[in-house]
Amino acid sequence: MARPTKTTLDYFPHQCTHGKTIAILESKWGNDGYAFWFKLLEIIGTTNGLHLNFRDESLKEFLSAKTRLDGETVVNILDTLAKVGAIDAELWDSDCIFSENFIANIADAYRRRKELLPSKTLLMGVYAGNNPPKCGKEKEKEKEKEKENPCRSKDDRLEGFNQFWEAFKYKDGKKPAYESWKKITGYSSELLALILAGAKKEAERRPTIIANGKTPKMAQGWITDRRWEDEGLKDGRKQYTPAEQAERDRKFWAGEDL
User: For residue 73, is it within any domain?
Assistant: First the structure.
């Protein structure tokens, strides 16, 4: 049996010197602010997808319990982290806790993994799009409905494929594309949102691909190769030299400006 794909972390670096982020948190909330930041990173690092869905009521309760802070204080600290750029402000506005700097600084742990890192572009497609992630009671209700009506999951997958077909905008090979679609593993509303975001980007850049004399990917091959996962590596991120990355690591964990 194949080993399950790992999408979390066992550890991350912790610098001994700190900068702006920690200074602001400590000035406002003392040791609670300091502890909150690193406990938040621990939770992100052990959560599939390396981001947190703040629409999930159970997550809010867990954050309060883990940090021993009330809900209002938790939100105030997160607001501050968004203002100083420690977490992404746009995604936070959509109830997603995501730190692109954190992702950049743990990228080495993913170099030998098949699972790709999440990106802001794909997460914006999930949280700011028309397919918000289901959580808590919504997920439980969905599971119960599937038990009551086994055909429901098939209907959902077909509906999802139709959304993909419209977003992909390459109207050729629909039947083989759907056969590949039915074989997608780990299918869920969250994954669908990521696929749709990737399909829209593929449609946007297809004219350029054709103009450069290259053959665009057909839907079947795009689905089979799980090309939506490539978006995490093509998100406009700058590539840094080892020395530059080491300095960015030091600044990030010290809470300094990058």
Answer: yes
Provide the residue range defining the domain that includes 220. 137-233
CB 91 within 8 A of CB 124: yes
| Same domain, yes or no: 110 and 144 | no
Q: What is the C-alpha radius of gyration for the chain, rounded to an integer number of angstroms?
A: 20
Tokens read off for 164: 């993909």
Is the CB of residue 106 less than 8 Å from the CB of residue 9? yes
Give pLDDT tens digits for 148-183. Answer: 444 445 678 898 999 999 999 988 899 999 999 998
Nearest Cα to Cα of residue 66 among 84, 45, 42, 46: 42
- Rounded CA separation 119/234 (Å): 9
Shared domain for 156 and 193, answered yes or no, is yes
Neighbours of 126 (CB within 10 A): 25
Quote the number of domains for the chain: 2
Same domain, yes or no: 146 and 88: no
> What pTM was computed for the model?
0.54
